[in-house]
């Protein structure tokens, strides 16, 4: 598949208390936002943390865009991405992902 790809990942995180969950959310947000400008083909990255606190919500969402599917594949094994995953360790207890092509405007 050619053309831009949107990559969305949502996580549920460990944490027994509100303070632990907040610290976990902040850590994920900080680490992933630190990837801006470090990975070829990664054209957009934003990280949101949940404010609803409903029991079925995920804690963090990553919305990123890549130039194409090859860039997304390269991201999966990029040393900076792997470093972030390593630093997060087992903080994540649930992970959900959707990847889809972005329609270019005017087409």
**Beta fraction:** 25-35%
Largest sheet: 4 strands, antiparallel
The coarse overall form would be globular
Would you report the number of β strands?
A: 4
Return the string of H and E elements. EHEEHHE
**H/I helix tally:** 3
- Assembly state (oligomeric): single chain
Distance between termini? 16 Å
Alpha carbon gyration radius? 15 Å
Mean pLDDT: 94
Structural class: alpha+beta
Strand order in the largest sheet? 2-3-1-4
Work out the helicity level.
25-40%
Residue stretches low in confidence (pLDDT < 50, at least 5 long) are none
Pfam families: Dabb
Protein name: Dabb family protein
Organism: Bradyrhizobium campsiandrae
Domain Stress-response A/B barrel: 5-100
Summarize the structure.
This protein has a four-stranded antiparallel sheet with strand order 2-3-1-4.
Structure description:
The chain is 32% helix and 32% strand. The mean pLDDT is 94. It is α+β, with helices and mostly antiparallel strands. The protein starts with a strand and ends in a 6-residue tail after the last strand. It has 3 helices and 4 strands. It has a 4-stranded antiparallel β-sheet. The longest helix is centred in the N-terminal third of the chain and has 16 residues.
């Amino acid at each position: 598949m050619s053309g831009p790809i949107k990559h969305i990942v949502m996580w549920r995180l460990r944490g027994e208390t509100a303070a632990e969950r907040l610290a976990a959310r902040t850590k994920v947000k900080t680490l992933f936002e630190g990837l801006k400008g470090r990975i070829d083909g990664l054209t957009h990255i934003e990280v949101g943390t949940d404010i609803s606190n409903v029991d079925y919500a995920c804690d963090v969402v990553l919305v990123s865009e890549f130039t194409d599917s090859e860039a997304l594949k390269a991201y999966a094994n990029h040393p900076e991405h792997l470093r972030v995953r390593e630093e997060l360790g087992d903080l994540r207890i649930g992970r959900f992902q959707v990847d889809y092509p972005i329609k270019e405007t005017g087409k």
